[in-house]
Amino acid sequence: MAEAKTAIERQEIRAQLLPRRYTTIAAEIGAKVNRLPVSEGGAFRAGQLLVGFDCSLQQAQLQKAQAELEGAQQTHSTNLRLLELNSVGQLEVDLSKAAQSKFNAEVGANKAVLAKCSIAAPFSGRVAEQKVREQQYVQPGQALLDILDDSVLELEFLVPSRWLSWLRTGTKFEVQIDETRKTYPAKFTRIGARVDPVSQSVKVAAAIDGRFSELMAGMSGKVLVNPPSDR
After folding, report:
1. Is 167 exposed, middle or buried (0-12, 13-18, 19+ CB in 10 A)?
2. pLDDT tens digits for 73-110?
3. What is the pTM of this model?
4. In the chain, is it the N or the C terminus that has fewer CB atoms within a 10 Å radius of its CB?
């Protein structure tokens, strides 16, 4: 007598295409957006400039701090020479050294701010959504761009837990995408660590096996898996 199918086995298994990596780029400083070299939908390489800010004020503050540091260094050097001649006391030397350390810290802080005046791509991919425009002033923490890595499109879905008797990473299958009305090769890449006892299912991940220019993240379709007949 044939074993009764579980609820999930009686249903059509659906999955959505997901990018390998995705994130939201946010501002770390308050400034005016000066450059957005990659338009919405455009591709970029890892390390490429995604956002540039107008940091003329921050640059001026750095130059001021550098000038003050130079003056403090000269004062401290002079005090050290005068100390050898017993023309100043140790207190003046210590104070000039403290001033030098203070302005050295200010230079470092201003350089750290300037480093945030441009945002480079953390990985290669595409701009999914542009949330700001050039010449717009943004606040720290404000979202600027949604980016994603679509070099490999992944799938996540549930399968019957009884498939664990034969399912392995690398097992190949096909997925029929609604938007293109085509079928594409895929393979399992990860198998979940636990079984849901209510639905008798386990979460799995897979990846489209190959590059197909017409596929985009967000598309969905039907998973076509043929379990071994003796399982």
Report:
1. buried
2. 999 999 888 888 888 889 888 898 999 999 899 999 99
3. 0.74
4. N
